[in-house]
Design brief:
- The protein has 295 residues and is α+β, with helices and mostly antiparallel strands.
- The protein folds into 2 domains: 175 residues, Alpha-Beta Plaits (2-Layer Sandwich); 49 residues, no CATH class.
- It is built from 10 helices and 8 strands.
- Strands 1, 2, 3, 4, 5, 6, 7 and 8 form an 8-stranded mixed beta sheet that branches.
- A hairpin with a 5-residue loop joins β4 and β5.
């Protein structure tokens, strides 16, 4: 076990992950033709030939595309991704730099493992046709080169497999790439917007319920101060034509109150609002009567 660990060689690889969009829907001969065309285009790039000649290139076929791991410099996968657009060949690409190591699979064939290639694939999975997506880590390194800055367009974060969140940057110009926002990010933003709306409505509903409970509690407290056996006698209104029966109206009100007070069920409050209303009405009638006499 110790020997195996000592033989493990991890290095930083600059990974370009490519696949053909809609590959599984193609006929068998069309799949073969598309793969051959992609191979010819990639192998014709200067970066591929140079890294291959220097022994700084690892290749991993994936059936519908493949991964190229450059071990020479950061710009190699970016330059290799600047493929000419072909109307009959639709590919998507993801680029990331991270730790990789060369391993041997069950078929005794060379393979590549490590976080570098895994994240590069996750970045590519977020892309649509013609997209060249970079991890934010790669984009931050490319910003050090003035010639690349105008092509870097931040897309924010995207949640990928196992709930991992990756910062993405769209790499495009008028000659290459795809300026549209990837569908996966659009769907994620819509989902987040719906979540914010639901949370906002939930908070508003909770506040409304809390406010309603507060008002009900205040009202309950106010009603609790009123005796259960309570009755209010309002002043009688003088409906006579001469409006000179005010004292008679007040007398009826007072008589009713006195009769109710004799009943032990009811309690007569002192200086209540009923008598304040009666007194105001009586003063108003007196003022009116005095004014008419002076005239």
């Amino acid at each position: 076990m110790a020997a195996s660990s000592s033989e493990l060689k991890v290095e930083i690889g600059h990974v370009l992950f490519v696949d053909i969009v809609g590959y599984s829907k193609l006929l068998m001969d069309e799949q073969t033709e598309q793969l051959q065309k992609l191979k010819e285009i990639v192998w014709a790039t200067e970066e591929f030939r140079r890294a291959q000649a220097e022994g700084k290139l690892l290749r991993l076929p994936t059936g519908d595309g493949g991964a190229l791991v450059f071990r020479n410099d950061l710009e190699s996968p970016v330059k290799c991704a600047l493929l000419k657009r072909h109307s009959e060949l639709h590919v998507r690409m993801g680029i990331h730099s991270g730790p990789v190591n060369e391993v041997t699979d069950l078929n005794a064939q060379a393979n590549i493992a490590g976080a570098g290639i895994n994240i590069a694939q996750r970045v590519m999975d977020c892309a649509d046709a013609s997209h060249i997506l970079l991890s934010r880590h790669v984009a931050e390194d490319l910003e050090q080169y003035p010639r690349w800055r105008s092509y870097l367009h931040d897309l924010g974060e995207c949640e990928v497999k196992h709930g991992v969140r990756i910062g993405l940057v769209n790499f495009y110009s008028e000659e290459f790439g795809n300026l549209a926002t990837p569908k996966k990010l659009k769907d994620l933003r819509k989902k987040r917007a719906r979540t914010r709306i639901v949370v906002g409505l939930s908070i508003a509903a909770a506040l409304a319920i809390a406010a309603g409970l507060f008002v009900l509690r205040k009202r309950s407290t106010s009603f609790a101060n009123i005796p259960h056996n309570s009755i209010a006698v309002l002043p009688f209104v003088d409906m006579s034509q001469e409006k000179d029966q005010g004292y008679f109206s007040d007398g009826i009100s007072e008589e009713l109150l006195n009769l109710l007070a004799k009943n032990s069920i009811f309690r007569k409050s002192r200086g209540g609002s009923t008598w304040r209303m009666c007194w105001k009405a009586r003063c108003a009638r007196r003022a009116t009567r005095c004014g008419s006499r002076r005239n």
